[in-house]
Amino acid sequence: MDQSQTPTTPHVVLLSSPGMGHIIPLAAFAVCLTRHHGLSVTLISNTITSNQQSLQDFLSSNQVELLSLEDPNEPPPSSMNLNVESRIWQIIASTMPNVHSKIKSIARTSHLAAIIVDPFYLDALATAKELSIPCFLFFTSNCMVLSLVYALPSLDEQFLDQFCNLPEPVQLPGCVPIQGIDLHFAVQDRTTEVYKEFLCCTKRFKEVSGVLVNSFGELEPGPTKGLKEFEAMPPVFPVGPFIRTSSTSPGQENECLRWLDQQQHGSVVFVSFGSGGALTWQQTKELALGLEMSKQNFLWVARRPNDKESTAYFFESKNMQGKLDFLPEGFLTRTEKVGLVIPDWAPQLEVLSHPAVGGFMTHCGWNSVLESVVHGVPLIAWPLYAEQRMNAVLLTDDVKVAIRPKQDNSGMIGQEEVSRVVRCLMQGKDSERLKLRAQELSHEAANSLEGGSSFKNLLQVTRLLKSSVI
Ligand code: UDP
Questions:
Q1: Average pLDDT over residues 88-94
Q2: Catalytic status, residue 71
Q3: What φ, ψ does residue 160 adopt, rounded to 5°?
Q4: Entry's InterPro entries (predicted)?
């Protein structure tokens, strides 16, 4: 406990499901609550493992108590054949009794003011009810995706067919039109368990006291306003962007920063598909050849291809990591003067804040998007899974800070197309326009947190929490 925190300081428990995409923004949010809003915080997570030492240090140096539940690298054997969402649901279900008793024990020794959960932890609503405290949701994506969540129960009743067969794009309030195929991956096949779980989860959103969104009003003015049109839904507070502040740890990661130091200002396109994204073998080859064809400088975090699952890298076995044997023959030698390829992982935050980086080819995971926006880096939107296609639509059609490569009839992004979008991002008129827009958003993001719209929204929530325990 910080010296400024006393036993009567209002306490908040945050719950984060497995996956860096959730723990990272929740950790940053937790620190903001202790540093700027006079609350004490316990973060309960399944994710923290030894290789995330920097995150643990970040939390403990900011007086956030961290309770780790289990090592997610060892999923129960029965979950091996499930998709990523179902695996997470399964892990959460197995840890819920433990979480429940941990929260109750915290409540016995502190002034517990609220539980704040990520969308996978809605089962904690029962704990909050038992303790007669509010339960808020921390939505790790954006307002446009939240709008789909709010709209889904009625879309489900309104349309019988698969959404990808709808003749017209879906029009969510205040959002740009979205083709059915670009909606969240979980709603693409309405016959699956994943769809049913997602729909069931969206209906439970109604029960929370409010939704804190990791986005900011200036990034999404239309969707933020549009959310007010839903009746009988919890109030929405865009409070972001919350991103991690550092991702460095010793070892190879520093190699790419040293390499970037030698490149010209704004000359490098950073290519990375998040913590779990994987491309097919053919797509990896097309990407490699397209980067080479573009003749632009690149830094590529290359992952072992997988023909079955775009989320495969989340479950990649450790002994297959660290290798680059899947790249086209001679590629590394031919591109050694313009590019650096590193296996598995890069210190993304340090890379995006490096002056040599002028663009980011990303899978559009929301954390990656926010990190790019905060650092004023324009994007190539190459979505893979989850809600990333919606993020791509938001970034290209609405926010206009990204370009999106076109897939051919087989769903492939060919090498010529890769080369075209990379050149477009890095050179010429479109590049200038995208860079200016990215810089503008970077300023707006900072202002929003420093006394602007996000700060005010969070203040409103924390005042409410404090008044509930007095
Ligand atoms: N990340 C990183 N290095 C990598 C890949 C990912 O530091 O090589 C971090 C990235 O900065 C981001 C998070 O992992 O904070 C990925 O979250 P995101 O929401 O973008 O995608 P997800 O991995 O959840 O699909």
A1: 84
A2: no
A3: -95, -35
A4: UDP_glucos_trans (IPR002213), UDP_glycos_trans_CS (IPR035595)
